[in-house]
Amino acid sequence: MKFDYPKLEPFNFLGLEEQDYQKSKVVIFPVPYSSTTYWKPGTKDGPQAIIDASRHLELYDIESERDPSREGIFTLPFLEPSKNSPGETTARIKSVMDKLLQDGKFLVMLGGEHSITLGAVQAFKDKFSDFSVLQLDAHSDLREEFEGTKFHHACVMKRIKDLSLPITQVGVRSVSEGEESGDVFFAPSLPVDEIISTLKEKVYLTFDLDALDPSIMPSTGTPEPGGLGWYETLGLIKEVAKKRKIIGADVVELDPILGFHAPDFLAAKLVYKIISYII
Predict the structure, then answer these.
(1) Greater model confidence, 9 or 178
(2) Which of 86, 204, 209, 225 has the most CB atoms around it within 10 Å of its CB?
(3) Is the pLDDT of residue 149 over 70?
(4) Which domains are present in the chain?
(5) CA dihedral 183, 279, 128, 207 (to 10 degrees)
(6) 102: burial class by Cβ within 10 Å (0-12, 13-18, 19+)?
(7) Which long-range contacts (CB under 8 A, 24 or more apart) does 182-188 make?
(8) Alpha carbon distance 179, 201 (integer Å)
(9) Cα(165)–Cα(162) distance, integer angstroms
């Protein structure tokens, strides 16, 4: 698969000067999609904010004592969401993911609102069939329908459950009456071994940034107090990567605050740490 990439100032993750799709182990897939349902819609600006902030990261990772970027990280052009319907955007995401998975890349999707996760998981379902979805999130996102659509970000995990995939939810602290429950670990509980015991051998990681406490991650559409901390979150992801095979990931729901870049930097660092644990 070949992608043409601009030769001028690269809007790519980490600002890497050299990008070679064939040699890269990791592909960053930015999806700047946001519906109009938030009280402060801006998650469509999340992928650009993460990529901009990533250009200020040190490439050397202290924890692993290496530079993960040397394994090759290729950033795709931004996906253009459909103006017609959320379902059509989901189909576009799946179409791109289908092609990328054929090439054996480790995929990290940047959102955008959480509804984009469905298209990615559909593609992984076609390729891997049987795996768990590990959801870090303040909300269950298990509504059957919301605001007239089944493709709402509040419904994304229900649509994934409809694919007969097991879900483990971590960091949840806000649910609606009647939402399904299963393997849910409500914040602040983070029993790492117990969480891992619920997961199949292969795991898709979906990380809604509102899983983190607003004191370190205020830039989300629906921040909830009492969230997860930085080091405990990294500890969980690291252990999952050690004891299971993470096959893909997304980081979603960054809603940038103009002039306040610390949350953008955190999100970029989180993406790079996930990559460092996987490759």
Answers:
(1) 178
(2) 209
(3) no
(4) 20-278 (3.40.800.10)
(5) 40
(6) exposed
(7) 184/140, 187/138, 187/211, 187/226, 187/227, 187/228, 188/226, 188/228
(8) 27
(9) 7
